[in-house]
Q: What sequence folds into this?
């Protein structure tokens, strides 16, 4: 079926929509790699005063912006509604109210334009961001997915075949960044603030590297987060001065050491030579630098998307949707949102 489908539709221009959290995004992507437009409306300034994303507010903002963002994506791509071959949308995981806004709009657009609907897993979208700028990059490879909600080590054996080898047992890496940032008085979102401050400090505080069992590829960041909190509280109680920049640098070094070590170890174990990064935390310059150093030592190929394709965006959803399209996989118009959707699971 997939071969026949590919012969009938050799090219595909896909309108993609992403509203899983606090970015309202739409893009037009051709053949999974050529981004014709990529429009993102961020809600960071709205949620900043609350110290994190408020789901109800996020949903309302998506409703306000979705029509404008999709229209701008079509204008930027110089495409008319009828020129689109399919409509792709994130249907999980994410905030259920936010997902439903994008999903409802995408289903209505697909119905009105008489176009197929393609449901895309949000994390598969992050992984597919690696195909956008590097046309030669292809499976198999190991992908380290690091974001505010997920930390996964994934063996990508084909464009649509994912095996989760390791994942966090508690806090995701990005969540730990945000909580540590709050502990030392940095504003939301904490990740970029930690990265910025760490450049001014020295990693001279001994925070734990949690590697778990010897044969485990899982992660745990709650102990590291607690160690930072305990250190800061102890200093505050005893009146001992500490440098916030040193705390940020030491925390970041401890977190990145574990992320890099496990990715390299898994690549060796699976006999692969390629590693990719994905997710919002992969925009972190220190993680990118440390992973690059480790890959150079092992003679591994490393692929990292541009920062704009690391954070939530619709171009990555259009890239992932293309590989669903080439298999002839489309979704019914009664497709629902699945906030806890697991990687590799198909509805």
A:
């Amino acid at each position: 079926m997939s071969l026949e489908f590919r012969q009938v539709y050799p090219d595909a221009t896909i309108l993609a929509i992403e509203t899983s959290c606090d970015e309202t995004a739409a893009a037009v992507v051709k053949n999974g790699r050529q981004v014709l437009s990529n429009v993102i409306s961020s809600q960071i300034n709205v949620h900043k005063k609350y110290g994190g994303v408020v789901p109800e507010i996020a949903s309302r903002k998506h409703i306000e912006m979705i029509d404008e963002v999709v229209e701008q994506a079509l204008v930027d791509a110089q495409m008319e509604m009828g020129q689109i071959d399919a409509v792709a949308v994130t249907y999980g995981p994410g905030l259920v109210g936010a997902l439903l806004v994008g999903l409802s709009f995408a289903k209505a657009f697909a119905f009105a334009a008489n176009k197929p609907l393609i449901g895309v897993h949000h994390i598969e979208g992050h992984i597919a961001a690696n195909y956008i700028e590097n046309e030669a990059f292809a499976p198999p490879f190991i992908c380290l997915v690091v974001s505010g909600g997920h930390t996964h080590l994934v063996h990508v054996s084909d464009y649509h075949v994912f095996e989760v080898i390791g994942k966090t047992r508690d806090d995701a890496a990005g969540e730990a960044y945000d909580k540590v940032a709050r502990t030392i008085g940095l504003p939301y979102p904490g990740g970029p603030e930690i990265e910025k401050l760490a450049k001014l400090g020295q990693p001279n505080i001994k925070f734990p590297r949690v590697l778990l069992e010897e044969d485990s590829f899982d992660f745990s960041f709650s102990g590291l987060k607690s160690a930072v909190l305990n250190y800061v509280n102890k200093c505050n109680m005893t009146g001992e001065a500490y440098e916030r920049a040193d705390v940020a640098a030491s925390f970041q070094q401890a977190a990145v050491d574990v992320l890099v070590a496990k990715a390299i170890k898994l690549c060796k174990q699976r006999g692969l030579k390629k590693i990719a990064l994905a997710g919002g935390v992969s925009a972190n310059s220190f993680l990118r630098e440390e992973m690059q150093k480790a890959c150079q030592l092992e003679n591994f190929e490393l692929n990292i998307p541009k920062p704009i394709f690391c954070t939530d965006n619709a171009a990555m959803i259009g890239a992932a949707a293309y590989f669903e399209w080439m298999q002839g996989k489309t979704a019914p118009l009664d497709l629902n949102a699945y906030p806890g959707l697991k990687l590799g699971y198909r509805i």
